[in-house]
Write a structure and sequence with these properties.
This protein is α/β, with parallel strands linked by helices. The chain folds into three domains: about 270 residues, TIM Barrel (Alpha-Beta Barrel), CATH 3.20.20.300; about 200 residues, Glycoside hydrolase family 3 C-terminal domain (Rossmann fold), CATH 3.40.50.1700; about 110 residues, Immunoglobulin-like, CATH 2.60.40.10. Helices cover about 30% and strands about 20% of the residues. Its EC number is 3.2.1.21. This is beta-glucosidase. GO terms for molecular function: beta-glucosidase activity. It comes from Halogranum salarium B-1.
């Protein structure tokens, strides 16, 4: 539809709508179970779509829905759309949002990608675009049209249970990769909207506890969090979701400063803002800044929240009452409804609200889509340690022993925000992957050895390891979301994984030590959502591979890497601490004085493995770091070049990372932070010049009031130990 025609339709609808119909368009609901809300069936949601005309519904595509079958969810989507389009007075179509943290993973037979932390290890924007495009096609094929994502959160405390949903600790990395993923959604040949989350700051909660307060200075909030949203806002997106937590005492869902002054007026966002699911209710029940649910709704509307994602009839009734009492002007409602209707028009829902189930098998989980997921998993593999070049193992070894709780557990391998039972996941475990890549005459033996936090058969595992040529121990974390739930899947909240424990549980540690004591050459694989503090492993295990949550086909990627079919190329997107007591551990920390002398202070940054670390089976040399100019204007940029040579004997990919720092500034700035990155593929013996277009704004200074300026002065860029200095000119 032509834009002018769409605008005319929206305005005509607004003129015709009753206040109650408008209010209903700003309320969402769900099918299934949701904490603090009643369980709802498809029949009950269908009735809400008819009256009062709920504008949003999530009948599948989230953890609380019992509906995960692909053809089943298509039938539900069409049924609810039919109620909206054919059985309401105005025929306004329904918008169906779904959780797509790492693919359309709450529906069976779809493509489940590595989680974002693993994707960030690839440092590959083009790959993230492919991930976004694939996800959009699969989402649209089931009748959903809005992706809850990408995640722009910056993880600054690895105790946090949502670390794996993020692209790590660098605002630049988080922002660039989230924007690439969103770009891929928009470049798909289907109409799917994106909703970035969780604005403005979520990833450094007190105690590492999910949704706990983020109390930070305005300069830190702008430098460390808001910056990660800027690239995706510049690309253009349809929705923003606020964070659950409070920011310096003000809940995000009730903050006109963040949602209106900053998001809309300063950053120019013109889409719609939808509550994180229970975010409005939390103003009343948890933050206790509103004495009633009615007041919570009023506050959220005044702040700039357009849609209450779980509001249903209660939200509808309260909005009507608030307008009729004069507490909310109807023009505020009109503006929010206009944004919602414009989105539905832009997505083509008025013309084509239904979806055809006949072609489902040609879209969901196709060979091409799964190949993209496998490619993503391959590129994410991060080799932390490889003493004496133990890896890659010989695929023709006589006997390979595999053990550990995550060696043959697909649900743990895909991680949270996806179907949670092994029989619902279509994929390849690490055990299966190893069996598929070794030689025909190689025997692969397996003993679980341990569960996530309980011993199983350590003695049997030791006996099998003793007779094997090599051993692969696959440890880490299981499926979880948010604060390490849900209990029926993960077990009681006092069991690992939990925010107070970044070390391996005793059962896994004991298994690892027992296998290493056999002196069988051993590789350790971590399948985990967070960096785990494992100093014993670093000191005693010769080969360690970080696989993150590598997705449904990630087991094959792990196996290919261990046995040399794939050359590892991932780089850590987050620092690995030595212990929980070493936190915070991040590469872009602020400097501090050392009043009793530097030699009397332990290092400020001394991780087990640093941000950006990752080994390869070949060797790369960096030469001739250069700048196209010695001086740059504050609004200008400079080209930084570096020659990268593959001096090893096999082809490999290298993620080239450029770090920067300021010599002096008017306020304290990070000692070092990532300012640019590119990925390059090189054959053995090949050299390439990698160039970065580096803006002077990469060295912005953030003042205590949150303002940002590019100050004159000397800055340093560094790449693999080589440095160069650049002068930012005075704009006066």
């Amino acid at each position: 539809m032509h834009a002018d025609d769409a605008d005319s339709r929206v305005e005509a609808l607004l003129d015709e709508m009753t206040l109650r119909e408008k209010a209903a368009q700003l309320a969402g609901t769900y099918v299934g179970e949701m904490a603090g809300h009643p369980t709802q069936t498809v029949d009950e949601v269908e009735a809400l779509v008819r009256d009062p005309g709920i504008g949003f519904a999530t009948p599948f595509g989230f953890g609380g829905s019992p509906h995960t079958g692909s053809k089943e969810v298509v039938d539900i989507a069409n049924r609810l759309q039919r109620a909206a389009v054919e059985e309401t007075r105005l025929g306004i179509p329904l918008l169906i949002p779904v959780d797509t943290i790492h693919g359309h993973a709450y529906v069976q037979n779809t493509t489940v990608f590595p989680h974002n932390l693993g994707l960030a290890a690839t440092r590959n924007r083009a790959l993230l675009e492919r991930v976004g495009t694939t996800t959009a096609r699969e989402v649209a094929a089931t009748g959903a049209r809005l992706s809850y994502g990408p995640t722009c959160d910056v993880a600054r405390d690895p105790r946090w249970g949502r670390t794996f949903e993020t692209f790590g600790e660098s605002p630049l990395l988080c922002g660039e990769l989230a924007a690439a993923k969103s770009r891929g959604v928009h470049d798909a040949d289907v109409d799917v909207a994106t909703m970035a989350k969780h604005f403005p700051a979520y990833g450094e909660p007190e105690r590492g506890e999910d949704t706990a307060p983020v109390d930070r200075s305005l300069s830190s909030l702008r430098r460390d969090f808001v910056r990660a949203f800027e690239p995706i806002l510049e690309e253009g997106l349809e929705g923003i979701m606020p964070s659950y937590n409070s920011i310096n005492g003000e809940p995000s869902h009730g903050s006109s400063y963040w949602l209106t002054d900053v998001l809309r007026e300063e950053l120019g966002f013109d889409g719609y803002v939808a509550s994180d699911w229970n975010g409005v209710r939390m103003l009343h029940e948890d933050h206790r800044v509103a004495e009633s649910m009615r007041e919570a709704i009023r506050q959220s509307m005044a702040a700039g929240v357009d849609v209450h994602s779980l509001g249903s009839v209660d939200h509808t009734d309260h909005v009507v009452g608030l307008v009729e009492s004069g507490e909310v002007d109807e023009s505020v409602v009109d503006e929010s409804v206009r944004r919602v209707l414009e989105l539905k028009a832009d997505l083509g829902l008025f013309e084509d609200p239904y979806v055809d189930a006949e072609g489902l098998d040609d879209v969901l989980g196709t060979d091409a889509h799964r190949e993209t997921a496998l490619d993503a998993a391959r590129q994410s593999m991060t080799l932390l340690q490889n003493d004496d070049d133990l890896l890659p193992f010989d695929p023709d070894a006589d006997e390979v022993f595999v053990t550990g709780p995550n060696a043959d557990a697909l649900s743990n391998q895909v991680g949270g925000w996806s179907v949670s039972k092994d029989d619902e996941v279509t994929g390849i475990s690490v055990r299966d992957g190893i069996e598929s890549v070794v030689g025909d005459d190689t025997t692969v033996t397996y003993e679980q050895g341990a569960g996530i936090d309980e011993p199983v058969d350590v003695e049997a595992a030791v006996a099998a390891a003793e007779s094997a040529d090599v051993a692969v121990v696959v440890l880490g974390e299981n499926w979880y979301i948010h604060e390490f739930g849900v209990q029926e899947i993960t077990g009681p909240t006092d069991r690992f994984p939990k925010r107070t424990q970044l070390t391996l549980p005793d059962a896994q540690q004991d298994l690892l030590e027992a296998i290493v004591e056999t002196e069988t050459p051993t590789a350790l694989v971590f399948i985990t959502g967070r960096p785990l503090a494992t100093p014993w492993a670093e000191a005693n295990v010769p080969a360690i591979l970080q696989a993150y949550y590598p997705g449904a086909d990630g087991g094959r990627a792990v196996a290919e890497t261990l046995f040399g079919y794939t050359n590892p190329s991932g780089k850590l997107p987050i620092s690995v601490p030595r212990s929980t007591g070493h936190l915070p551990t991040r590469h872009n920390h602020l400097p501090n004085p050392t009043p009793i002398g530097r030699e009397e202070h332990e290092p400020s940054y001394d991780p087990l493995w640093a941000f950006g670390h990752g080994l390869s089976y070949t060797d790369f040399e960096y030469r001739d770091l250069s700048l196209s100019a010695e001086t740059v204007d504050p609004d200008g940029s400079v080209t930084v070049g570096v020659d990268v040579a593959n001096v090893g004997d096999r082809a490999g990919d290298e993620a080239v990372q450029l770090f920067g720092s300021r010599e002096y500034s008017s306020t304290v700035t990070p000692v070092r932070e990532l300012v640019a990155f590119e990925r390059v593929s090189l054959d053995a013996g090949e050299t390439a010049t990698v160039e970065f277009d580096l803006p002077a704004s990469a060295f912005s200074v953030f003042h205590p009031d949150g303002s940002r300026v590019v100050e004159a002065g000397t800055v340093t860029v560094e790449c693999e130990g080589s440095t160069a200095s650049l002068t930012i000119a005075d704009d006066g």
